[in-house]
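User: Sequence for Large ribosomal subunit protein uL22c below. Tokens please.
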Amino acid sequence: MINKRKRKRDPYTEVYALGQHICMSTHKARRIIDQIRGRSYEETLMILELMPYRACYPIFKLIYSAAANASHNMGFNEANLIISKAEVNEGATVKKLKPQARGRGYLIKRATCHITIVVKDTSLYEEYNICLKNPRWIKKMKSTDMRFHDMYRK
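Assistant: Structure tokens for Large ribosomal subunit protein uL22c:
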């Protein structure tokens, strides 16, 4: 029997906000979620304010709520937050009957979705500090080294 070590996530670095039964299609919400995943908190708010989609407003409120949870419950600084995980799942379908001619009913299906936003505090990354203290480790792992690239900063 092989003993596999599971990597435990530190519960003190992640804060989430969950929005359930939001009346919109999952495809429309995923179109926006894919744009903001992995970005910083301030950059995400600017992107969502300028996007012309109706689904931006509930996502904006969820990100704002996740940041408020992080600052109030954990004492994190909002300037150091990044959106580490954002996912959209299907919710229950609301079914309504619209009256039609000759006493018939036409079924209207309204899609709902559940949106989860997880924010992380970047000031708590110990891996980045280890890289700076041991430069030989960077030379060994240069091909798999993942660094955050900000395309707006020069």
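The two ends are 52 Å apart (CA to CA).
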